[in-house]
Design goal:
The strands form 3 sheets. This protein has a 4-stranded mixed β-sheet, with no helix packed on it. A two-stranded antiparallel sheet has the order 2-3. The longest helix has 12 residues. The chain has 2 domains: 125 residues, no CATH class; 38 residues, no CATH class. It has 2 helices and 8 strands. It is an alpha+beta fold.
């Protein structure tokens, strides 16, 4: 929710429509605007690897007649899918970067956090080697973020970069003091 609130604030201030401001990473988007339709897909289903399920565990869960599988003994266990019907027990053997360099001289940084414990939600390039970063909230919390873990590539030697961590907050944290 914080990312959307931040975008709304930028629109009200008139800073988001700048030609330099662009989203260069978003871990929740299923499609990247930097891949042309019809050419190469952002997430290639051919690279999807289904994780094996523990059949014994599934049989045990199907046989239960209590919450969350129903009190009437009916089998309403639907397996490893989410509410949209997509499989949730899979991963991609190859992940393509969200941002694709426009040419070899493009110095825009490339971010990645789609790995275990990665917590970068969104990265926005705002110009002059400055990036606004929005982090995912800490596990088990909906109010604070006190750590970060992500990968950055396409860095240049002797270049200075500035990362503004927009929601790097926790009440009574050393980070609040600078």
């Amino acid at each position: 929710m914080l990312a959307e609130e931040y975008e709304q604030l930028e629109m009200e201030n008139g800073t988001q429509n700048s030609a330099q401001n662009k989203i260069i990473y978003d871990c929740l988007e299923e499609n990247s605007p930097y891949y042309e339709k019809g050419k190469e897909p952002y997430l290639d289903e051919a690279d999807a690897v289904d994780l094996p399920t523990d059949e014994l565990l599934l049989q045990e869960m199907r046989g239960k007649s209590s919450y969350p599988f129903g009190n009437n003994g009916a089998n309403n266990f639907i397996g490893p899918t989410n509410a949209a019907g997509k499989k949730i027990n899979r991963y991609y053997s190859k992940l393509k970067p969200y941002y694709v360099k426009e040419n070899e001289q493009d110095t825009t940084l490339i971010f990645e956090s789609r790995f275990e414990s990665g917590n970068l939600r969104r990265a926005m390039y705002i110009g002059d080697n400055t990036y606004n970063l929005i982090l995912k909230y800490d596990y088990g919390s909906t109010a604070y973020t006190q750590w970060f873990y992500f990968k950055v590539s396409n860095v240049r030697k002797d270049m200075r970069y500035k990362f503004n961590m927009i929601n790097f907050v926790k009440p009574d944290s050393s980070y609040n003091q600078g």
